[in-house]
Recover the amino acids of this structure.
């Protein structure tokens, strides 16, 4: 019986951590195998379980608490994923204005249906999170939730909804900050082609627009890619702040 009481907090913590790792970047990437996520969740639960008090629940209460911990981990993971969706959204904006959406395909690794820049930016953000130790900030924020929302407590859903609404606004703003300069250049290129058509109606300037916009996107898209490390670092801090706002 004592062994069961000792395993209860471990299992509850493992559910919260594992659900978070399955849904939150960068661990939600398809290149991370499911068994690895499960083992990592159990391992982190072992590190967090010692200071956790054994809840000593009944069978029905234990099952209900498992569901509650899954909701906590999933809610926090959705918040983090929303913040980091800014990078993918920036790539989608570049694809849309640069004419690359016609090459849209489904990537089974990221489970994203997008054009080349969308997939490139999503993969680059995942790599940068691992290289820059941004994933440690994400895990650290998750570990601190056990102090703010201990086992047996429920997540403040109104605060989560409010924070998610703010995260969506920040996501759109960050996407525009990354892709905005390139979109402005592409818009000016369209304006120039329109003026050229008015000056020389016989010249089909828009037939030249597709290769020109592709050339501009490939040339200037590199500069937007160079700015991604700073953007990803800022997004990791925003995700940590959002977790603290929900659990604080």
């Amino acid at each position: 019986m004592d062994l069961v009481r000792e395993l209860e907090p471990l299992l509850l913590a493992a559910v919260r951590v594992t659900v978070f790792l399955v849904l939150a970047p960068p661990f939600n990437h398809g290149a991370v195998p499911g068994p690895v996520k499960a083992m990592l969740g159990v391992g982190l639960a072992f590190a967090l379980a010692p200071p956790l008090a054994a809840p000593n629940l009944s069978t029905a209460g234990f099952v209900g608490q498992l569901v509650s911990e899954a909701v906590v981990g999933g809610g926090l993971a959705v918040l983090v994923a929303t913040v980091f969706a800014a990078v993918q959204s920036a790539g989608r904006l570049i694809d849309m204005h640069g004419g690359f959406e016609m090459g849209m395909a489904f990537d089974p690794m990221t489970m994203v249906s997008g054009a080349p820049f969308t997939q490139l930016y999503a993969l680059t953000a995942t790599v940068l999170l691992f290289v820059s130790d941004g994933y440690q900030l994400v895990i650290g924020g998750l570990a601190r939730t056990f102090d703010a929302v201990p086992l047996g407590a429920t997540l403040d859903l109104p605060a989560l909804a409010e924070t998610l609404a703010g995260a969506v606004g920040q996501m759109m703003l960050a996407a525009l900050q990354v892709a905005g300069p390139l979109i402005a250049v592409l818009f000016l290129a369209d304006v120039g082609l329109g003026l050229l058509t008015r000056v020389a109606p016989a010249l089909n300037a828009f037939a030249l627009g597709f290769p020109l916009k592709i050339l501009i996107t490939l040339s200037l898209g590199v500069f937007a890619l160079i700015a991604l490390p700073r953007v990803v670092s800022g997004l990791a801090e925003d995700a940590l702040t959002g977790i603290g706002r929900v659990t604080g």
Notes: The helical segments are 2-23, 34-48, 59-98, 116-131, 134-148, 157-199, 205-226, 228-247. The first helix runs from residue 2 to 23.
